[in-house]
Fold:
Amino acid sequence: MSHPLEKVIGYTFKNPVLLETALTHTSYANESRQPAEHNERLEFLGDSVLSVVVADYLYRHVNKPEGELTRIRASLVSEEALFQFAQEIELGKYLRLGRGEDMGGGRERPSVVSDAFESVIAALYLDGGMEVARNFILPFVTEGKTAEADYKTQLQEVVQQNPEEKLTYVLESETGPDHDKHFVVAVHLNSNCFAHGEGRSKKQAEQHAAREALRLMGLT
Structure:
């Protein structure tokens, strides 16, 4: 019987145990009466696979110096970014957690969910090879997120050319349950509202606001 997550990610595992292990938190393994392998070793491997795929993509598609590429890669493989990616596939609801971890909100905890995301990457790599892992990772990285990692910096650099100008980001609304938040942020230039952005995290909404501001300035 296939795992429901396989439909979400569009891949069927030849070895389903790999996916089960990727979704198993240490708390579940520690509480299980039957021996259960947790996902920490997979997380270790997934971190490296993710880094290689992102670095390769940035090298081929983003024409910036080494320091900028390093900064963008760090943004894309950060816990916050991985948590956002994991939310897009609702990864938290598929995790096997111990009772205490589950009751304590582990399914919405960024550290737990982002680690599981890396573990799923490793499971895909081990089951289907680098291309399968790459095909899973790249849609998260390429759907505007590479540029998003840089919009706020780009806008700040433009504004800094005029020392008396000041940028601020103001959270205008936060709605929805914890697992499906919706944020609206306004970017202000001095005291004037310049542009708005929306997203599933405050950071994403800020980036969208910065992108809209750049667009209004004719810079994107």
Summary: The longest strand covers residues 167-175. The two ends are 47 Å apart (CA to CA). The chain has a mean pLDDT of 88.
